[in-house]
Fold Glutaminase.
Amino acid sequence: DQVTTTLPVETYLRRVHRTFSGLKDGAVADYIPPLAAADPEPFGICVVTVDGQVYAVGDSDAPFTIQSISKPFTYALALADRGLPEVRRRIGVEPSGDAFNSISLDSAGRPRNPMINAGAIAAAGLVDGGESGDPAERLVESLGVWAGRRLEVDEEVFAAEQETGHRNRAIGHMLRAVGSLDGDPERALDVYFRACSVEVTCRDLAVMAATLAGRGLNPLTGARAVPDALVTQVLSVMTTCGMYDAAGEWLVNVGIPAKSGVGGGVIGVMPGQLGVAVFSPRLDAVGNSVRGVAVFNQLARDLRLHFVNTG
Ligand code: GLN
């Protein structure tokens, strides 16, 4: 371990990349045609520090959709727009133990947390329209502040999410029925589907993760993406709920706040230090990138990422 950490960062990352590039387990998401047609091979690893160093290896500039990695950032914007008490009243913070798309609520009638679809759709419904009156556009803009560049929606993925999103639509209407959403559920669903369909690169995701690590300050642009005081709330739910049904396994093995998406991205945050992103589209049974999980396990060992660092 000590040997690898004395290597220059990029040399070290290149070695990790080489180690796991032969890993071909898992399969690309196939619930919509554009994801099913994705090339399974691209593989990128990117680390960005809070002082703005960027280390990128492999396919760090290949585009893919952010999918559920949008959830912590949607939650952050909902918190910024509505304040903690209102958001807490409407969305819980307990791990669910159910699949990310489960149609369920907690005993108080709220979505269990903002990292599953129900909580993310409720959070999407709390995002303000701002000047344009369009909350989806405002959320896309906000994701761009986190990433340090203007991001765009992949319209083909968005159309497919809209067309096939019956389960999410069911969740939206359930939320409306219990009062977790006001107004037309389609409005929140539009925001949610658009957020999932935003096109990013591994490098973008690492900058977004580094912005969380820097308590909301983008290390490349200096722009503030979210008020400092809200970052703890976001990182806490990522810690307990960010990796779908493998959140417990992740916490034991890796031990840092994280979020994955079915597009093949995974982000991890070392508060005060750095953000990491891995991109590789083949997913395991719970929906996490196989190489992504493998790389983070390796980095956690070599770089001692785990928050309980007992040596
Ligand atoms: N668009 C997907 C859905 O809502 C995103 C899920 C994900 O990345 N887990 O089902």
